Amino acid sequence: MVRVKPFAAVRPPKGIVTEVAAPPYDVLNSQEAKAMAGEKSLLHITKPEIDFDPIADEHSQPVYDKAVENFKLWRERGWLVQDDKEKYYVYAQTMDGRTQYGIVLCAHTDDYAEGKIKKHELTRKDKEDDRMIHVRIQNANIEPVFFAFKDNAELNAIVAAKVKETPEYQFVDENNFGHSFWVIDDDAVIARITEIFTNDIDAFYVADGHHRTAAAARVGAEKRAQNPNHTGKEEYNYFMTVCFPESQLKIIDYNRVVKDLNGLTAKEFIEALQKDFIVEKKTSEAYKPCGLHNFSMYLEGVWYSLTAKPGTYDDNDPIGVLDVTVLSNLVLDKILGIKDLRTDKRIDFVGGIRGLGELSRRVDSGEMKVAFALYPVSMEQLMNIADSGNIMPPKTTWFEPKLRSGLAIHLLG
Question: Which end of the chain is more exposed for a tag (fewer CB within 10 A), N or C?
Fold first, then answer.
């Protein structure tokens, strides 16, 4: 079973939460962050390169120093204030009329090391190192990670009762996504939440934040090695996450655009596709995949339906059944010669939140030659893959809305 604990969050006063809260560090580039950041924005702490003119190298020592300086300054000014005791929190996100309710808590780094916090993606050491530096220099988890867990009726009931109360925070962001936040400070409820996770929840699944999770575990191990009196109960053994019941989560498609046809004409490319796919010409109107193993393709101003022929995929293999695998094997690799999705500069990835119009726009602009839209992965597929110890291909899942940063911060000591 998983180990969790409440924590005394550092968070903004109610009256300025919309000024402090910000998108996560990795969804904005430095120029976008600089344009968005108001005086109190957490972006000055998570992307402090924006405080330099011109914008500085985000991996430089002066930028790391500025992050520490700003975090200290925000607390001195009362823009971030620590709660008086350890608590749990409920964080709700609403998009397109659908709301998901997560519990904000601290998970244990040992559970990551022991495989109770299950991942479905590989991490890159350079990105881990960068996140590790931020955790280390701040002695805090400034931004949460995003976990899923298998539904538990009693936890759902506790959350349902809590959200009937007036939220501590409630606002709509620049994308028209709703964010609500409640504080659980009843000691009996806090104790019961801890008991349920400890006794009944056997695993967490990393939905979004693989690098931050790995970095938090590495900082915990580092601090443990430096402490001769380590007991396992220190705050650095834990890191902040928002945990959602899997039934409430929806994965959005993660699509692909490619710069060229690997020397083929459009006619030759379609003929090559017909060996493994039923290719149907649609219209200039955007076509959305209708189910597993059906893809949409945009080429030279026309949308096509591609349906993989039986025998070209393996529905009994948790990785082989994924449409990202089917597309990679039969099209990107076999026809277009793209072997490594992580490093090949001929391919780019577009989150489904941007819509099919972004795919056609990038092709029509001449930047890209062809675009593919995929049917989204299900939570069941993600959890099956994580349970089996397998790893998904790169850029498989896209979760939306993203967790807002700045609603809660966890100090490591």
Answer: C
